[in-house]
Protein: Alpha-type protein kinase domain-containing protein
Amino acid sequence: MTPREYCKIFAAEARAIPDFGAVPEIIPLYLIYRPANTVPYATIEEDLVGPFERYCVKERDGSLAVQSSSEIAQKCCAFQHWLYQWTNGNILVTDMEGVGWRITNVRIATKLKGYQGLKESCFPALLDQFAAAHRCNRYCEILGLKSLESLQQPAKPKGSKSPSLGRKAPSAQSSPQLQKKGLASPQGTRKGAVSPKASRKSTEAGEAQLAPKHKALESDRSSQLQ
Ligand SMILES: [Zn+2]
Structure:
């Protein structure tokens, strides 16, 4: 589903709530063919007439920002929260700007591989950033959204810093290079603070995790040879 389709579902839900009022709409993009142009394909939007405003956007430094406290901006934030919850923390709309209630230029961050044909996850860190930075407004409350803190909590007692760390683990296991990278960086930056013993321990733990895999491979091979 595209952000526009998600937004339609959101709008349907919001309209069912008497107190919610107007709902932002993501306007469609059209693809046009311009053979005479150096870039033959272009996307065009319906004409947006009026002052262009930025509501919830991604800053140049990569941080998420809410640009205004208007009703529209608050509802855009509520839509971000709604979509985040609806997709179990897998999809975030990162840019919402436009004219009045008509939103355009939306971008998406996702942890899902294969979303909209994407081969890799796309700015996955932004989803965690959103979960930490989002402050619920009255429209989140009207929609009955769960606070993001409560969504995050189940992973905390286990000692991992954030749910994303826990979720990243399986992919790190499948590629040993990534895992080593992750281990190496804290050692490099905190050489003085971490004792060599501790860092050795962590590499051993990393190797130990991989060991069963090798064994399995070897036994496969030997059984094939016999
Ligand atoms: Zn919220």
